[in-house]
User: What shape does this take?
Amino acid sequence: MNQYQLIKLAKRVGLYALIAVVMVYAIFPFYYAVITSLKPSSELFRVDFWLSSLDFGNYVQIFTQKSFVRAIFNSIIISLSVVLIALLLGITASYALGRVRFRGRTTVMLVILGVSMFPQVAVLSGLFEVIRALNLYNNPGGLILSYTIFTLPFTVWVLTTFMRQLPMELEEAAIMDGATPWVTITKVFLPLMWPAMATTGLLAFIAAWNEFLFALTFTLTDDQRTVPVAIALISGGSQHELPWGPIMAASVTVTVPLVILVMIFQRRIVSGLTAGAVKG
Amino acid sequence: MASVTLEKLNKVFGHTHIIKDVDLTVADGEFVVFVGPSGCGKSTLLRLIAGLESITDGDLKIADGVVNDLPPRERGVGMVFQSYALYPHMTVYENMAFGLKLAKMANETVDDRVMATARILQLEELLHRKPKELSGGQRQRVAMGRAMAREPRILLFDEPLSNLDASLRVQMRNEIARLHHRLGSTMIYVTHDQVEAMTLADKIVVLRAGRIEQVGSPQTLYQQPATRFVAGFIGSPTMNFMPAQLLSSDGEGCKVKAPGLGELALPQDASGESRGADLTLGVRPEHLRLAEAQGDNAFEIVNVEYLGNEVYVYLEPKAGDTLLIHRSEAPSRWDIGQRVALVPELEHVHLFDVEDRALGLAKQRQAA
Ligand SMILES: Nc1ncnc2c1ncn2[C@@H]1O[C@H](COP(=O)(O)OP(=O)(O)O)[C@@H](O)[C@H]1O
Ligand SMILES: [Mg+2]
Assistant: This one.
């Protein structure tokens, strides 16, 4: 083996070592949560790195709690609504911002970017008043509204950037074919914007799914709670005992859908749909 | 099919005046080519006709109706874009059917039209492919098919061949010419390539900085360019220009003196010019003959290009730094370094005044 091959081998080993480190760092917490959730409560505090038992007691316990099932349902409704509204508004706004020339377009873009810089706590009390005024307190509508506010800037920004990259002549071809702006958006741009929409939609979904502060503040009763709050409020046998088993089981339960979603959409995100649009 | 009339058409972008007072008539069934250097406003003029840009001033008529304020779909025009701009997510069939479906045509009509168009353009085999599975020439044909499927009254092309390689360009050029012959529809075609313009056009419109420089058949433009710009733009290799001074003029023509050529008696009418006026002599490479050098009226050959069927001989000019070109059939007896005399064919020489306008022939003027 000569020196060149050795260096090549070393590089490859180094690369895989690095990948392994990143993988462990990213995945280990989740892996440990899965293992813990499958342990009976008696073994909870023994440190195990491998699956030592298959006890579904924790899962049975959380799914028999009506409030937890209800929380999952709420989370699904709210997150999907946020994604739908954000994409609808995002696509139409990005058409205006990316395709229509008007005075103050850059200003609007900057304002949108500026809005997304406010931390949640900064607007919490103000938003609380708004939600009270709109009669949306302790109601999914309040959460949908507040999540959409925080998701839209990013959605609009990403979709606008993407929309600008679509060739101008494509839109003009549609105009020559007699398409109205709405037809152009839905029949020509939308199919090409799948990758961007999958990305932004997914991120909007995850953000809404994981959000805690607003969910805690804007809801009052158990039947209106979302998953993160429900998990935080799972209580143990006594005041001094944190029920780690059920909490882990609940966390795994609500994380699995996200993992599946990312896996489904990753192909969409990667696929280059615009290939062949222009030039020979 | 329809005629197109442009009356004092103007286009201003912000503060830049791009199209200036363009008057033009395109007859029904005519193939008109807009040609000119890059940035002269060809595309803008085409887009004004298409309805993709708004008209700042003037009138645009299609088949006698003013269409200034009609949207593209109501003007009955189809357009082929330079980048083709096919819908990448649709098959060839869907690409061609898109406009028809939007026009709310019955499904059978849509199918008939698409199939008929596909037959004309030999796209039948490709109907179920996506654009990315097509070659450059095939995409080009699909782009034409999409524009044709709606049976527009006028077909517009914006540099449709400039993305193709040289041999394919010649082939597609031929196909477009045959297509026009077959359909007989009005076509307006933009290019910066004068060869495309010469080979395709019934009528060439030479544009320069937003103005029409000359309109005419390819023959007219080649044989009687109205300005020095047109003379230099049309024809390859380009026309030779040499400074000349007016010595005298009469009813038969005029006499000029050019450095290196001596005194020449030309058929042009220069009665409008004063004696001693600075004129420009224009001679096409094939009208510039070479002879053995005699006396001091000699030019040096600096390069000889052999192209197989013909030969270009490059000569050091007496003024300016653009080399003079002589073109003749191969083989050539001339070689680099030789000194030769230039003999222009006087009946084919062009003469331009100080403002670069061509001087007419004296005989023609008398006849008129
Ligand atoms: N939408 C526009 N806004 C401002 N200027 C434009 C626009 N479209 C074209 N122009 C300008 O008009 C001139 C002519 O452009 P164009 O018609 O595309 O030239 P070409 O003859 O090369 O097709 C160019 O100088 C170009 O910069
Ligand atoms: Mg152009």
In short: The first strand of chain B starts at residue 4 and ends at 13.
